[in-house]
Design a protein that fits this description.
Largest sheet: 3 strands, antiparallel
Mean pLDDT: 78
Helix content: 25-40%
Radius of gyration: 29 Å
Strand order of the largest sheet: 1-8-3
Order of helices and strands: HHEEEEEHHEEEHHEEH
Shape: elongated
Oligomer: single chain
Distance between the termini: 48 Å
Number of strands: 10
Number of helices: 7
């Protein structure tokens, strides 16, 4: 891709260098000459607005939509916080975009079958071992697919025996062996208590055993996205904002309907509590329908068999 014409580049280049190359953050370290390191993530990312700022933006949006400053809005800080929290709860309940797929390593300790996972974990899809055979230690039959693939490239040269077929057959053999000899751990997971129970007894390895020698397994997880990530999502944030506004409008409607008429000259004043409640319920139903239409960027359902 060619660089843009120099005359078209704006003087204040916030996102581009002078030659038109996009600015980006990298893990490259000039001292080590490598890019290895910890990936900055979620709330620690400098390009994400803070959670408090996003919640404050929603609060200001609700206040302005309800006419605060022009008329008296009977809401306190607790009411705004409740409206935002209810919007997040509804979004997490209905939208797949509120969760993410992730992987985590779990160390298997002897005589331990029950593990409590963090609260953000929603479900455990699978538990993969590194190899087959014994449960802990280094005596299991290890298999490194990337190393095998690297060695296999030397077998691709014309005239040599082997090739991709050998590698494919060996991988299939490995999968079959894992299914037959414990390469995949059976387990149960309680979504309420977050307790993971392994259907296997981890052998006792003796007193004062080195934890570095214990086996690590790979967990395939689904976990909640942090609130800060959802509120920084350009597709999810407008929905959260609108639902929080509708919920706050419902609270105001409930309060004003309790005193529908205030005494005064010429028959008094009638409050619009019932109107606000009706509008809020209609808006909330519309917003829930929007989640079914995946306007927030959630992935639609795939084929379901059975």
């Amino acid at each position: 891709m060619s660089n843009p014409f120099t005359g078209n580049i704006v003087a204040d280049n916030t996102y581009f260098y002078a030659n038109g190359v996009l600015k980006s953050d990298s893990l490259y370290n000039s001292n080590t000459g490598s890019g290895a390191g910890h990936i900055e993530y979620d709330e620690n990312a400098q390009w994400l607005d803070s959670l408090n700022k996003r919640r404050s933006d929603i609060t200001d949006y609700i206040r302005m939509r309800l006419g605060d400053g022009i008329v008296d809005v009977e809401l306190d800080k607790e009411h705004y916080d409740m409206a935002i929290n209810q919007a997040l709860l509804k979004y997490r309940q209905r939208a797949s975009n509120s969760q993410e797929e992730s992987y985590a390593f779990l160390k298997l300790f002897p005589e331990t079958q029950e593990i409590i996972l963090p609260d953000i974990v929603m479900d455990v899809r699978a538990a993969y071992r590194r190899g087959i055979g014994s449960v802990s230690g280094t005596t299991a039959s290890q298999f490194e697919p990337f190393a095998s693939g690297y060695l296999n490239t030397y077998m691709l040269v014309a005239g040599r025996v082997g090739g991709l077929l050998n590698y494919e057959l060996f991988v299939d053999y490995q999968k079959l062996a894992m299914r037959m000899f414990g390469g995949y751990l059976n387990y149960t997971f309680n979504k309420v208590t977050k307790k993971l129970t392994l259907i296997r007894k981890i052998p006792y390895t003796g007193v004062n055993a080195d934890p570095n020698g214990f086996e690590d397994v790979l967990l395939h997880l689904y976990n909640y996205k942090p609130d800060s990530m959802i509120l920084n999502d350009y597709q999810a944030f407008p929905w959260i904002q609108e639902y929080a506004y509708s919920f706050a409008k419902l609270i105001v409607g409930e309060a004003r309907e309790k005193f529908a008429t205030l005494p005064g000259p010429q028959g008094g004043t009638t409050l619009n509590g019932a109107t606000l409640k009706g509008e809020a319920k209609a808006e909330m139903e519309k917003l829930e329908q929007e989640l079914k239409d995946y306007v927030d960027g959630s992935y639609p359902l795939t084929w379901v068999i059975g």
